[in-house]
TrEMBL record:
Name recorded for this polypeptide: protein-glutamate O-methyltransferase
EC supergroup of this enzyme: transferase
PROSITE patterns: CHER
Highest taxon above the source species: Bacteria
UniProt GO MF annotations: protein-glutamate O-methyltransferase activity
Keywords for the protein's UniProt record, in alphabetical order: Methyltransferase, S-adenosyl-L-methionine, Transferase
Catalytic activity entry: L-glutamyl-[protein] + S-adenosyl-L-methionine = [protein]-L-glutamate 5-O-methyl ester + S-adenosyl-L-homocysteine
Entries under SMART domains matching the protein: MeTrc (SM00138)
Annotated ranges, domain CheR-type methyltransferase: 1-273
GO BP annotation list: methylation
Stored InterPro entries: Bact_Chemotaxis_MeTrfase (IPR050903), Chemotaxis_MeTrfase_CheR (IPR026024), CheR_C (IPR022642), CheR_MeTrfase (IPR000780), CheR_N (IPR022641), CheR_N_sf (IPR036804), SAM-dependent_MTases_sf (IPR029063)
Pfam family, one: CheR
Keyword 4Fe-4S: no
Amino acid sequence: MQEISEKIFNHISDLIYQEIGVHLPQKKKAMVNSRLSKRIRKLGLQDFEDYCQYLENNKQELLHLFNTLTTNVTHFFREKHHFDFLCNNVLPQVKDEKAGKKVRGWSAGCSSGEEAYTLAILLSEFFNQSWDTKILATDINTEVLNAAQKGIYHQRQVKKVPYELLTKYFQLGTGENKGLFKVKSKLKKLVQFRRSNLNQNQYPIKSKLDFIFCRNVFIYFNDKTQNKILNRFHKHLKPEGYLFLGHSESINTEEREGKWESVYKTVYQKRRR
Ligand SMILES: C[S@@+](CC[C@H](N)C(=O)[O-])C[C@H]1O[C@@H](n2cnc3c(N)ncnc32)[C@H](O)[C@@H]1O
């Protein structure tokens, strides 16, 4: 198959930006070329031109396009210092303040679920059964969400989970499932997975949140998109709630002004007005 042309790359990259806010710069052209070629072959189409026509006539193909072009690398206990900060600073504060015994967190851009399940494990360890704890976990990519929902991980994926937590929260596969670890239902019921686009105005959030983890997602957005999303996050957090960003992401000083306080490495607290 011929390589993707400049014209078609720009068309796909504009479409992705408009729909999900992900910025695909020129240096991603080889990645787009290789991933889309596979999709084109799978569909039995001839070339990129054919694919654009197909996309035009089949709106549901957009879902596959997002699945193909998003990057979903993740693991359990990723950037562990954030989880230490959560357990040592955020959760004790929540425990002191909450009369209603309700805790709500959001893993935004949750990929295959490792971040959301890590959070659920920590909430479950910290709060006793009488607390109502829930993690909402959202992503745009339906393939990773299906994997998250299944909650079955290979040994290499759970290597960062401490052994006592692994045996407590995962079922160890035997026989033909040897080497696989399945999230136990007591953990699964603490996490709700939903498809949701961060680039849209409405998020599926009902109650105010104690914390949001949106890590290693902002790197794919430009400043304008990041700022729009930050304003929505601000609205959904309770006063003094926390926002965790990835290690290479931040809120610039201008945006922080009066709204966010930097309290730890790429962790921000919503200011009480
Ligand atoms: C690199 S993963 C980060 C996973 C996890 N937060 C972590 O830090 O390990 C980025 C995720 O963001 C998702 N994503 C990208 N654009 C999105 C959008 N507009 N709305 C929702 N999720 C999006 C991707 O599908 C991908 O699963």
